[in-house]
Amino acid sequence: MSGLLARLRALPTAALSDALDGIGVEGALHGLSPLSDGFRAAGPAFTVRYAPVDESGAGTVGDFLDDVPPGSVVVIGNDGRTDVTVWGGIMTGLAAHRGIAGTVIDGVCRDVSASLAQGYPLFSRGRFMRTGKDRVRLVSVGEPVTVSGVEVRPGALVCADADGVVVVPAAEAGRVAEIAERIEQVEAGIVDAARRGSTLREARERFGYHSLQTRSRS
């Protein structure tokens, strides 16, 4: 798996998204963005889900971090809420120290300066300072979560960069990597041909650009 993960990590999310489209798998998480365009993350998903506090009124965030293996990408389901945060500076500091690859939040984060200062990759729906303590409660760890209509299963391979976040099912990872690598080769060939004097139309026809994803579905 380490070699396969390295291949996925080297590919842009745009190519991975195209490859997922080509095999009819939905994996692009709409509406999530990095705090910095320089952030990249890739690794197996460690899934967490929050819900609003119940009648007890008690709730906390972050204790699950002790159980996250190094190299994982934490994927937090918080129903897209933007009124309370579920990730802050303490968690950023510990995650960076423990070698966690990054965090993807279906919601918001705070203490943005800590993430930027430590170069810890965070992808979220935005930023907001209000704590989630006593407002949300942890309801599951290591179970599937749904983000932007996409089911993220524990161990699925999460790849994120300046364009956003994609989730590649583990069973399809090899196939997706192969298709995405081919897409990158074709697009590089088109650019090279155009720089050498070909028209864009001619270059795309020569390299089969318009049928690339159609062929990959077969």
Textual characterization of the structure:
Its EC number is 4.1.1.112, 4.1.3.17. This is Putative 4-hydroxy-4-methyl-2-oxoglutarate aldolase. Its cofactor is a divalent metal cation. Helix content is 33%, strand content 23%. The protein is of the alpha/beta class. It has two domains: 26-168, Glucose Oxidase, domain 1; 175-217. The longest helix is centred in the C-terminal third of the chain and has 23 residues, at 173-195. Helix 2 (13-22) crosses helix 5 (173-195), helix 3 runs parallel beside helix 4 (112-118) and helix 5 runs antiparallel to helix 6. It has seven helices and eleven strands. Helix 3 links the parallel strand 4 and strand 5 (102-106). The chain has helices at 2-9, 13-22, 89-97, 112-118, 173-195, 200-207, 212-217, and strands spanning 28-29, 33-34, 41-52, 73-77, 102-106, 122-124, 136-141, 145-147, 150-152, 157-161, 164-168. It is elongated. Strands 1, 2, 3, 4, 5, 6, 7, 10 and 11 form a nine-stranded mixed beta sheet that branches.
